[in-house]
Amino acid sequence: MFSRIATVIKFHENTKTLESELGKLNSRKNDMLEYIELAKAEGKHPTMQANVWLIKVEEIEREVRPMLEASLNKSTCTQDCCLDLNMYNRYQLSKSMAQKVNEVKELIDSCSFHNVVADRMSPIKAVTVMPAPSLVGQKAAEERVARLMGFLNDDGIKIIGVWGMGGVGKTTLVKNLNNMLNSSLESFDIVIWVKVSKDLDLRTIQSHIAERLNLELNEGESTQQRANKLFRSLIMKKKCLLILDEVWEKIDLDIVGVPQGHDQANCKILLTTRSLAVCRQMMTNADFRVDVLNEEDAWNLFVQNAGDIAESEGIHTLARAIARKCCGLPLAINAVGKSLRNRTVIELWKNALSQLQCSVPHYGSSEEEMYLPLKLSYNSLPSKILQQCFLYCSLYPESFSINISELIQCWIADGLIDAHQTLEESFNNGIALVENLKDTCMLEEGEGSGTVKMHDVLRDVAIWITLIEKKSGFSCQPNRSLHKMPDKLQKNCRRVSFMNNSITRLPSQLLGCSELTVLFLQGNPLRKIPDGFFREVRALRFLNLSGTHITSLPPSLLQLGELHALLLRDCPLLDKLPPLGALEKLQVLDLSGTRLRELPKEMCKLKNLRELNLSRTHHLEDIEAGTLSGLSSLEALDMSSSAYKWDVKCKTEQKTSLYELLSLEQFSVLHIRLDTVGCLALDSAWLGRLKKFSIEISPRSCSSNYLPNQHDEKVVILRGVHLMEIGLEGLLRNACA
After folding, report:
1. Which residues cross the membrane (predicted)?
2. What is the pLDDT of residues 194-233, one digit of tens each?
3. Phi, psi of 693 (to 5 degrees)
C-alpha cells in the first residue's frame, strides 16, 4: 500500500517537472527560430547542427504530448480508481515521463546559438530597383517604355539597341523600364545592369556581371577563364536580361562570356548608345531611337524643374521660349529649369532667353545643339570663380570620382579661394563652392565618400568651353593612354592635365608654357623627372605627382618659387627629398605613403607651410629637432600610421618632439599615433585649442589601419592602454569620441 502511495506522489511530481521543462524547451525553440529568421534576412542560413536540433525537438514534443494528456486524464480519477487496476499504468507513465524529463533537459543544455547560422552570399534579387526621374507627364516617354517592353516580350528579338544623342534621356528611359520589370508578371529571372566606360574594359564588364550573379572571379584568371565561368552561370538561367548602358564601341559578348544565338536564347541584351553604328556592330535585332522630347512633354519637364513660377503671368511667355531653346533635350531642360527655379525677377528670364538666342558657336558641329543650352547653366553660375571651379573638374578623367579635399587644395593654390584666411575657413569656402555646383546640377555625388564627379556630357561641355574660350588656358588630356608627354605645350596653357596616362618619359624641359600654374601628372608610371624639367615653368603653383614611380625630385623643382601645393602622395619609391627651403610660398605638402626615411634639414625654412601630410610613412625615422617649430604657419599635421617615434622632448635633443607643436600659434589640426601615454604629457589647455584631432595611443605590436577622415572632430583611440594611466585625463576630457 505504501509503495502505491509513493508512486502516486512521484506521478504528480514527474508530470509537473515534464510540463515545466517542456515549456523551457519550447521557449528555447522559439528563440532559435526567431534568430534564424533574422539571420536569413542578413543572407545567412541555419547550420546542419541547428536543423538536427530542431528535428529532435519536434520528435520529443510529439512523444511527450500524449503522456501529458494521459496524465491529465488519470489525475481526474477518484482515489479508489487510482489505487485500483490503473495503478500499474500510472506507474509506467510516471517512469516514462521521468525518462523524457532527462531527454528534454539534455536538449535544452545542447542548444547553443554560436553554431546556429552560417554566412552565405545574399540572395540574388531578380531586379535591382534604380533611382530614376519620373516619366509622369511625358506621354511620349511612357509610350517608349511600353514599346521597349514589347521588344523584351518578343522571342524573335535577342539584342535591342536604344540610341540617340547624349543627354536625350536614354538612361532615364531604360532605368524606368528596369524598375517596371520588378513588378512585371512575366519578368526575367535576373536583370543585370552594367554601366560601360568610354574606355572599354571587358574585364571590368565581367566583374560587374559576376558581382550581380554573386559569382567570384579571381584577378589572376585569364579573360577566357572568367568568360567560361560567366557563361556557365548565365546559361543556367531560364530567362535573363543584360542592360549595357552607354556603349561607345562594339563589345564582343563571346569574349565577355554572355550566351548568344538561337541555342542560347535565354539571355537578351539591351544596350544604350549615342551611335547607330554601334548598334550595327553589335548586330541588334531592333533599333530604337530616342528623339528629343516634343514641345508639350519638354514644357511639362521644364515646369517640373523651374517650378510653378514658369506658369505665372509675365514669365510664362519667356519660359515657353526658353524651354523651346533647350531643343527638347532633357539634360538641358533639367539644368536650365533648375537654374531658374522659382526666380521671380523677370529680368533674369529675359537675360536667360537673350543668352540662348545670341550664343553663336565658333565652328559647326552636331554636338553644339546640345552644348549651347548646357552652356547657359555655365553662364548662369553666380561668379567667374565658380565657372573656373567647374572647368577645373574637366581636368580629371571621364566618370572620375574627384576627391573634394584635393580639388579645394588646387583651387586655393591657384588663387580661386582666398588664402589669407585659416585652413578651416578656406576649406569651408571650398565646400560652399562645391555645394553650389552640385545644387546647379553641374556636379554630382561621386562613388566614394568625400568625392564628386561630372556627368560625362557636362564634362564634354566643359572641355568644349575651354576650346572656344581659349583665355581659360585649360588643356585636358587625362586617361588617353599617352606614353610620352609633348615636348611643347600651347603658349596659352595655364592648367594642364596628363593624369592617369601611361607616360614613362618627360621632355628635358617644358617649353612654351611660362604661364603654367597647374600641372597634373599623377597616376603615370614615371620613374625619373629630367633635371631641367621645371626650369621654364616658374609660375607653377600646383603640382601633383602622386602615384608615380619616381625615386627623387629634380633640382629644377627648387626654382618653383611660386609653388603653393606639392602632392607626392603614394609615391612608393620616393625615399629622399632635396632641400625644400627654396619653396618659400609652399603651403601644402603631401608626402603620405612615400618611402621617406628622413625629412630634409632645410624644411624648417618653409615659413608659409600650412598643411603637412606624413601619414602612412612607414619608413620615417628621423625628423631633425627644430623642423616643426620652424614651420611657423603650420595649421595641420597628419602623421597617422607613421613609423616616426615620438616623445614629448627627445633625450638626444637631435630629433623633433611633440613639444615643438606647442610653439605653433596657428596649429589647429593633429592626426598622430603614439607608443605610450607618456609621449602625450602636453598642456591640456593646448589640446583644448585644437579644432580637430585624432590621437591613437597603442604599442607598435598592436596593428591599426585607422586613418582620419574629414568628418572626424576630436577622436581618441586606445589600444593596450590602462585607462587609469596618468596623462589620459586631459586628453579624454577634450575628446568627443
Report:
1. none
2. 999 777 889 999 989 888 888 888 888 899 999 998 888 8
3. -155, 150
Residue 56 burial by Cβ neighbours in a 10 Å radius (0-12, 13-18, 19+): middle
CB under 8 Å to 696, separation ≥6 — which residues?
640, 672, 673, 674, 704, 706, 716, 717, 718, 719
Q: Report helix, strand or coil for 280.
A: helix
Task: Output b/e per residue, 576-600; b: 16+ Cβ within 10 A.
Answer: ebeebbbbebbbbbbbbbbbbebbb
Question: φ, ψ for residue 253 (rounded to 5)?
Answer: -65, -25
pLDDT for the residue numbered 3: 53
* Cell triple for 246: 552607354
Percent of the chain at pLDDT > 90 equals: 31
Angle between helices 456-468 and 384-392 (to 10 degrees): 120
Cell 589647429 locates to 668
Q: What is the pLDDT of residue 398?
A: 82
Cα-only R_g, the chain:
36
Q: Is 173 helix (H, G, I), strand (E, B) or coil?
A: helix
Q: Is residue 585 within 8 Å of 608, Cβ to Cβ?
A: yes
Tell me how far apart the alpha carbons of residues 730 and 692 are, in angstroms, rounded to a whole number.
Answer: 15
C-beta separation of 167 from 246 below 8 A = no
Please give the Cα distance from 215 to 212 (Å, whole number).
8
pLDDT in tens, 250-302: 999 999 998 886 555 578 999 998 778 788 889 999 999 888 788 898 899 99
Q: Give the burial class of 262: count Cβ atoms within 10 A of its Cβ; 0-12 exposed, 13-18 middle, 19 or more buried.
A: exposed
Q: Which is more confident, 192 or 166? A: 192
3-class DSSP assignment, residue 48: helix
Segments of the chain assigned to CATH 3.40.50.300: 139-289
Q: Which of 734, 644, 647 is nearest to 691 (CA)?
A: 734
Fold of 139-289: Rossmann fold (3.40.50)
Percent helix, strand and coil across the chain, each to the nearest 5: 40, 15, 45
Q: Where are the beta strands (DSSP E) in 616-658?
A: 636-639
DSSP type of residue 489:
-
- List, in sequence order, every residue forming a beta bridge with 488; answer none if it has no partner: 511
How many Cα atoms occupy the beta-carbon half-sphere of 585 within 13 Å?
A: 17
Q: How far apart are the C-alpha atoms of 641 and 655, rounded to whole Å?
A: 19
Model confidence pLDDT, tens digit, residues 444-489? 889 889 999 987 778 888 888 988 887 778 888 887 788 898 888 8
CA 342 to chain centre: 33
- Check whether 371 has a pLDDT greater than 90: no
* Integer Cα distance of 439 and 443 in angstroms: 8
